[in-house]
Design goal:
The structure is a single chain. By secondary structure, the protein is an alpha/beta fold. The protein contains 16 helices and twelve strands. Strand 1, helix 1 and strand 2 form a beta-alpha-beta unit. The longest helix is centred in the first third of the chain and has 19 residues. The radius of gyration is 23 Å and the shape is globular.
Length: 462
């Protein structure tokens, strides 16, 4: 097997992210709230040796939202239930920093991490939907730059809270009636721009030290947060060239921040269509795209712009100049829509259909799909892939027909190498910051758990 290994995640998304996913014959119409559907998907992904499953989330809907968004399980609750029927696969949940307090987030993810024995991951988002403000007692959504400053501080506080107990703090010495070494419990006493948190957190670390930090955001602020603070980043690109440019940019930013390129992993989200031949796969994709409903496509087009109503424009006239609309929402997605509509001279109708149809390059026979995955991996466009799974047969087909090709080429594991998500991704276990400081003062007193973390992490802790 090659030294560098391809990583795979599966996005389990119930009835799917499109408007008509719930109509698929192989998908229960209540899949988004059916815990058995998620358990089965997680077990299938684990059997195929995927690194993790990923649950997407957002805190705002309208009547025009896709069916999956309208009625879905809360990610941490869902993954706690999935943890009990799996043993190796990572469990990654989305949670916003904009509308949650660091102490609650730290406790919830630390709990999932212990429940799963070191397999938790947090997808850190800032929430792109302006309407979410009304669900949390605010008149207005946080400005884009404020959201990212808040997210950076939020994440730093959460990580510090996860270190509230050194790994050997709990002596549990019944003979001497000593449960805790109090010198190894640490209050935080943080006072920052957005948060004041005393601490300590009332839960210990898992065997992987901290849950793995994922981040999703392609704007300038999002890229900077990911490059400086994340273990991995979720992204999305239609072409190899776009993915390669993003990959280079993130790795360059990471190095500039004092990190090694391999300390951050990049996972493009992709859709895959597999058939016996390339021609058959392309025909399947074309047939799926032909079923797109224009009214629903227009509603979906509006989501990056806080569900802007595109039905108000003449359908067959040029895509309108939207000015700064979307700048405080899903900025990178909104800017992409504007850019593509302008460059390709699309009408409103064409733009709605263009962004509602699948544009994936991963279409073809198992060998063709494996070839394209390998190209992106080998030529600096991805460290792994986050594969969208709606219909169960999609995951089954990929696992049965593409994964063996990747394994035969030495690109993907045949068995899990470790027990924790962090180690299976090839990421260092972060040593408790207080243990690092203690060892710096007294070299004879070294941390008792986990391999050394990265040089840059150790430097920042000190």
């Amino acid at each position: 097997m090659s030294k560098r290994q391809l990583r795979l995640g599966a996005i389990l998304q119930g009835v799917g992210m499109t408007q008509d996913g719930w109509k698929q014959p192989n998908v229960p119409s209540n899949a988004s709230i059916d815990i058995d559907w998620y358990r089965e998907g997680a077990r299938a992904a684990e059997a195929a040796k995927f690194d993790f499953i990923f649950i997407v989330d957002s805190p705002y809907i309208t009547p025009d939202s896709a069916p999956h968004f309208l009625n879905r399980l809360e990610p941490l609750t869902l993954l706690s239930a999935v943890a009990g029927v799996t043993s190796r696969i990572g469990l990654v949940a989305t949670l916003t920093t904009s509308y949650n307090e660091p102490f609650n987030v730290a406790r919830a993810f630390a709990s999932l991490d212990l429940i799963s024995d070191g397999r938790a991951g947090w997808n850190v988002v800032t929430t792109g939907l302006e309407g979410a403000a009304g669900n949390y007692g605010r008149e207005q959504h946080f400005a884009h730059d404020v959201r990212y400053r808040r997210a950076k501080e939020h994440l730093a506080v959460v990580r510090a809270l996860w270190d509230s107990y050194e790994d050997d703090a709990f002596t549990r010495d019944k003979s001497n009636a000593n449960f805790l070494d109090k010198s190894k419990q640490h209050a935080l006493n943080h006072r920052g721009e957005f948060f004041s948190v005393a601490g300590p957190l009332n839960i210990s670390r898992s065997k992987q030290g901290h849950p793995v930090i994922f981040q999703a955001g392609g704007s300038e602020d999002g890229r900077e947060l990911a490059a400086t603070s994340a273990d991995a980043i979720f992204t999305g690109h239609e072409t190899f060239e776009e993915a390669q440019e993003f990959y280079r940019d993130i790795k360059t930013r990471a190095v500039a921040a004092g990190r090694r390129p391999e300390e951050i992993l990049i996972f493009p989200g992709i859709g895959v269509t597999i058939a016996a031949s390339d021609e058959e796969a392309r025909a399947i994709q074309a047939e799926r795209n032909s079923r797109v409903d224009l009214k629903k496509a227009l509603a979906q087009l509006g989501r990056p712009f806080n569900y802007h109503d595109f039905t108000q424009y003449p359908l067959d006239e040029q895509f309108p100049d939207l000015g700064d609309l979307g700048a405080n929402g899903y900025r990178s997605a909104a800017e992409r829509v504007k850019r593509v509509a302008r460059d390709e001279k699309l009408t409103v109708r064409q733009a709605a259909l263009r962004f509602a149809t699948r544009q994936s390059p991963f279409v073809g026979s198992p060998t063709t799909v494996a070839n394209e995955l390998e190209r992106w991996f080998a030529e600096g466009a991805a460290d792994g892939f986050n594969i969208g799974v709606g219909e169960p047969t999609e995951l089954e087909k990929f696992s049965a027909e593409v994964v063996p090709v990747l394994q035969a080429r030495g690109l993907f594991r045949r068995e899990y190498e470790h027990e924790t998500l962090r180690e299976n991704l090839g990421l260092a276990i972060p040593t408790n910051r207080y243990s690092v400081a203690r060892a710096a003062e007294n070299p004879a007193e070294r941390p008792t758990q986990g391999p050394p973390r990265s040089v840059s992490e150790a430097r920042s802790a000190l």
